[in-house]
Amino acid sequence: YIVLMSDMVRYEHSPAYLTLNRLKKKAQQQQIEQVDYDKSHAFKTHTFKGLNWCEFCGNFLWGFTAQGVKYCGFSAHGKCSEKLPADCCPDLKNLRGVFGIDLTTLVKAHHSVRPFVVDKCVREIEARGLRTEGLYRVSGFADEMDSLRMALDRDGENADISAQVYENINVIAGILKLYLRLLPLPLITYEAHPAMIRATQKSSLMQQVAA
């Protein structure tokens, strides 16, 4: 039995492997569903047309102009918006593209752990670009990068970034850098930046991690 199961070809098609693989995918999916992010609503004053009611208190939105506030399809009185918890879950139809949108908004809208742009680009780079000289240093062609950016904004996770469409891997790496550069809040936030600088000044790796 051990000899039989050690055969890689047979093992990958065995019931044991398929069962373990299915359980692993189920656990990963449950982990994604359990991820929670605090995201405050970014309400803006809005002039509603027709009859509208506050989705928080249920009362009518009175007035002719600027009757209340609205964000991600949620309408409310200005005072009611201040009482809402930081549990904004934006709808994909209310997002215009992916570039320039903060991380929390994007991952909550897609119910993911990481932005899909990062996952798609990293997978493609690791699949065919790790031996490319100047990776992440050499820039891709501007017209191809513009085309890829529009494709990601338009098609989202269904955008085709394969070698058949974008042969130059520097275009994929450049788009990944562009996405990170256009984030409204950087990966290392302004609050964490001073602590990061202090940590890099430590002499040993253990001290840097502890800092």
From TrEMBL:
<dbReference type="GO" id="GO:0007165">
    <property type="term" value="P:signal transduction"/>
</dbReference>
<dbReference type="InterPro" id="IPR046349">
    <property type="entry name" value="C1-like_sf"/>
</dbReference>
<dbReference type="Pfam" id="PF00620">
    <property type="entry name" value="RhoGAP"/>
</dbReference>
<feature type="domain" description="Rho-GAP">
    <location>
        <begin position="101"/>
        <end position="211"/>
    </location>
</feature>
<feature type="domain" description="Phorbol-ester/DAG-type">
    <location>
        <begin position="40"/>
        <end position="88"/>
    </location>
</feature>
<dbReference type="Pfam" id="PF00130">
    <property type="entry name" value="C1_1"/>
</dbReference>
<dbReference type="InterPro" id="IPR051854">
    <property type="entry name" value="Rho-type_GAP"/>
</dbReference>
<protein>
    <recommendedName>
        <fullName>Rho-GAP domain-containing protein</fullName>
    </recommendedName>
</protein>
<dbReference type="GO" id="GO:0046872">
    <property type="term" value="F:metal ion binding"/>
</dbReference>
<keyword id="KW-0862">Zinc</keyword>
<dbReference type="GO" id="GO:0005096">
    <property type="term" value="F:GTPase activator activity"/>
</dbReference>
<dbReference type="InterPro" id="IPR000198">
    <property type="entry name" value="RhoGAP_dom"/>
</dbReference>
<keyword id="KW-0479">Metal-binding</keyword>
<dbReference type="InterPro" id="IPR002219">
    <property type="entry name" value="PKC_DAG/PE"/>
</dbReference>
<keyword id="KW-0343">GTPase activation</keyword>
<dbReference type="InterPro" id="IPR008936">
    <property type="entry name" value="Rho_GTPase_activation_prot"/>
</dbReference>
